[in-house]
Amino acid sequence: xxxxxxxxxxxDRIIGGSAVAFLIFLFIFKWYGGSASxxxxxxxxxxxxxxWHTFTxxxxxxxxxxxxxxxxxxxxxxxxxxxxxxxxxxxxxGLGALSTILILYRIVHHxxxxxxxxxxxxxxxxxxxIKIGIWLGLIAAVGVTYGGYLGMQDExxxxxxxxxxASGALSNLSAATGSGTTPPIPGSPEPxxxxxxxxxxxxxxxxxxxAPA
Length: 213
What we know:
This protein is α+β, with helices and mostly antiparallel strands. The protein is built from six helices and four strands, in the order αββαααββαα. The chain has a four-stranded antiparallel beta sheet with strand order 2-1-4-3.
């Protein structure tokens, strides 16, 4: 199948643009860092890291969100088909909301501070905390969530449908994992073999005919 951009809806464009922006903000922009300076000789030092290298646990959720969002746009453009009990808009909206919550948590709960001190004519100061990249990442995650919500409306999916699709996916998963044969537990007695019915006795031979007198 080929790429047909004309098939993209407004929700798909929002999802695609926000996902690409999220990817750029995650790997290129600085999310956390610190700096220090001294009045002697104008010495200064700074160090910072992007979102991927700063938050090593949450980054996998963010990466999955980006991949799923771009995949949903590719599906809408007709690049490939995917049969799933859960609609793409539901997945994008759910992962986007989770990514947004994780970024908000990192903004609220982050180590930050600064101090300055003087030693005679020497003045030293330092500070550390979040950078502009984390705020841009938050905006991009909100955009993915909003695009997924619009996609749910385009697909005619309500919150009741979301619960139904999620329960259906869990039921299919449980059926798939429970269809195999349960292996025997080590040390447990082997099941008794079914009784074998005795073979039927062969018919008795007929007596010979009496000899003629």
